[in-house]
Amino acid sequence: MVQFLGVLFDGLAYGSLLFLISVGLSVTLGLMNFANLAHGAFAMLGGYLSVTFMGALGVPYLATLPLAFLGAALVGGLMERLLYRRLYTESHLRQVLFTIGLVFMSMAATTYIWGSGAQAVRLPQFLQGQVQVGGIQLGIFRLFMMATIVVIAVLLGILAKYTRFGAHIRAAVENRAAAIGMGIDVERVLCITFAFGSGLAGLGGALGIQVIGLDPSFPIKYLVYFLLVVVVGGAGTFKGPLIAAAVVGVVDTAGKYYAPAAGSFTMYALMIVLLLAFPAGFYGRRS
Amino acid sequence: MNPSSMFVKLASTAFWLTPVAFYFLFPGHLLLGSQILVMALFALSLDLLLGYAGVISLGHAAFFGIGAYTAGLLAVHGWGEPISGLLAAALVAALAGLPVSFMVLRGGNLARLLITIAIATLLFEASNQATSITGGADGLQGMETWKLLGLFSFDMSGSTGYWYCFTTLLMCFLFLQRLAASPFGLSLRSIRENEHRAAAVGVPVRQRQIIAFVVSGAIAGLAGALLAQTTHFVGLEVLSLHRSSDGLLVLVLGGVGQLYGALVGASAFMLTQDALASLNPVYWEFWLGLLLVLVALFARNGILGAIDLSGRLAKRGRR
User: What is the mean pLDDT of residues B71-91?
Assistant: First the structure.
């Protein structure tokens, strides 16, 4: 039982990270029905920015987190303006080719700049170690990470529900043509949400170095996980990816813990079952 | 025979003479030649699925890999007869394609992408783990392919392999050409153009898509088996995401939905890859990515589309 609670905790920590990285993808997918397979590359960028600021400039780890957010958001916004928007009205095939191309380029460029090895970070003293709660060992860093992500998730929920900008996003997801007709600048909404989503992915990449690792194969290794969270959760929603990320995180961790020989099988099997059971996602609409 | 159909006959004959010319002009590059032919066959199988049936897949390497491992395992375990190995590979790939088609066709485009990636990744992981059967990351070694028809051995020069691949490709192409021109092919195109209208005029949409999926899987399996038999090796790479995305890239590069596009695209892609990889193999991935991005942004109808467009412009100029 105690062991199970420990696995549950690790799974939820992993799930919260998946949520943070995938939520931007969900919004882009909901807004434009755009399959951005390169979303993980922005997370990777955030991670490497964090490592670089720490290594080369001696910035403390926690201070690099906002920098990872800003860097990834800036690059995301620029890419949206310059490249992504040209493909919004194109077929899924072109979108897939384009974003897979970006993934390959980002992987090669990362290998060129930072080498092919895995990166590590030095955590500050007070985030290391574990605490004992009711007989379960909880990693302090994981607790910190989950707390950060919960705060961000609550802020996102408030942003989406109570602000004018949030209303614009929801309107554009619901019916883009009508939203444009009502005078909402959907192009601006798109650019900002894309940048913001990329920034959150970057933050997730930086936060996750200790938990899910960081090396040039990152965007491919986790591609299926991000897509799964979004597609199973229901694109364009907020609650869907949250629940899907928790399920995916717990099942994947439990699978690796209890049946290590099966590798990622548990995960992929779950995925096929979930996709067959919820073709339109937990909260999605049929497209 | 009217002049335009005469022209088409001449052009297609000339086209199919290029691989023959390649054999005599570049006898030292027959391995590359065989790889081009294998890639062309793989892209051709995708063209049936994507270009005709309109079903997107980012995991078609699954069937390529199943074919390659089927032929490879048969040869390792004492049955190296090439042609029956080839047919067995197609059969196994088709049998695998049937249940997969039900899963894939259920959802929308995004779910299809995800399911196809998931199935291919699942197989990749499986063959990576099952080292005792597949050799895992080291690849399947010790394949022995018998003489073709009992006469021609697959030697180092690669000429038997080249003609073997060429014949298989040509036969599959002719089959697909017939298929595309048949009422079945027309019904596939009507589904691609508009699924709901096709259903409304009485096309059994799901059934046609399933058949296209299975046939496409079988042909991809043939391509994989050809690679295994001519190189005497099966690596994990046959199941990789790279292999799937290469197939899509080749198809879009050449031109989707016209069969010849797969062949033109495969030649262009493999020759570019050969040239760039010899410059710096480590960063080939970067150039591949760039190629994908540029093709997605700018290649309207692929190389064939560009040729067609320039031809029409020239005609207009003459008037």
Answer: 87
Q: Hey, how many other C-beta atoms are within 10 angstroms of the C-beta on A265?
A: 16
Domain, as residue range, for A55: 18-227
With an 8 Å Cβ cutoff, are B121 and A224 in contact? yes
**Six-digit token string for A274:** 């979930």
- The string of pLDDT tens digits covering residues A159-197 is 888 999 888 888 888 888 898 898 888 888 889 989 999
Chain B interface includes A25 (CB < 8 A): no
pLDDT of residue A286: 43
pLDDT tens string B135-189: 777 777 877 777 777 677 777 677 788 888 999 999 999 999 999 999 999 999 9
Query: How many domains is chain A built from?
Result: 1
ipTM at complex level = 0.84
Q: Confirm or reject contact between A261 and chain B (CB < 8 A).
A: yes
Q: What is the DSSP string of B213-252?
A: HHHHHHHHHHHHHHHHHHHT-B-GGGGSHHHHHHHHHHHH
Q: Which H or E element spans position B65?
A: helix B61-76
Compute chain A's Rg from CA coordinates. 19
Mutate which of B102, B248, B286, B290 to disrupt the A interface (most A C-beta within 10 Å)? B286
Domain count, chain B: 1
Q: Does B296 contact A264 at a Cβ distance shorter than 8 Å?
A: no
Q: What domain range includes position B42? A: 29-240
